[in-house]
Amino acid sequence: MPFERTSVDDSTMAQGQSAVTTAGQNGERTRTYRVTLTDGNETKRELVSDTITVPPVTEVTSVGTYVEPAAPPPAAAPGGCDPNYADACVPIASDVDCAGGKGNGPAYFDGVARVVGRDIYKLDGDGDGWACNG
Asked: Is the pTM of this model over 0.70?
């Protein structure tokens, strides 16, 4: 007897992933017949019993539904400093450029700051985790 397949949502597994969590297994059926022979040839066959001796095991596939929640935006730091930068006050503006660089503002940052969030102003040109350090 062939096994069936089913799927279940799994909120602990990442969305887009799936895994077989219960392996399917075919079952066994036992059929008993009463056979009538005439002159050594089968002339009649009658089903006497039909028993499932080993039931099939349904294959279960878990399908991931977990979506990691988006990180909340960083809270504004006191004094008008952007919370994506630390160790110095990078101003909050529509665009900030390193003072003495090629940017056109409208705001400028004169100093070096550690990038602790997203480098939203692209002040870390060399990717070392520090803004406006050369």
From this structure: no
89 shares its domain with 113: yes
Nearest-CA neighbor of 32 among 51, 7, 9, 54? 51
d(CA 5, CA 21): 11
**Residue entry with tokens 């101003």:** 91
Look at the alpha carbons of 85, 88, 89, 90 in this order and tell me if their dihedral is positive or negative.
negative
Token reading at 86:
């630390």
- Indicate the residue among 35, 66, 97 that finishes a domain: 66
CATH number at residue 30: 2.20.230.10
The 10s digit of each residue's pLDDT in 32-66 is 999 999 999 999 999 999 999 999 999 999 999 99
Q: How many CA atoms lie within 13 A of 70 on its CB side?
A: 3
Q: How far is CA 52 from the centre of its chain?
A: 40
Task: Give me the sign of the Cα torsion angle 28, 34, 36, 40.
Answer: positive
Q: What are phi and psi of 125, to 5 degrees?
A: -65, -30
Is the bond into 106 cis (omega within 30 degrees of 0)?
A: yes
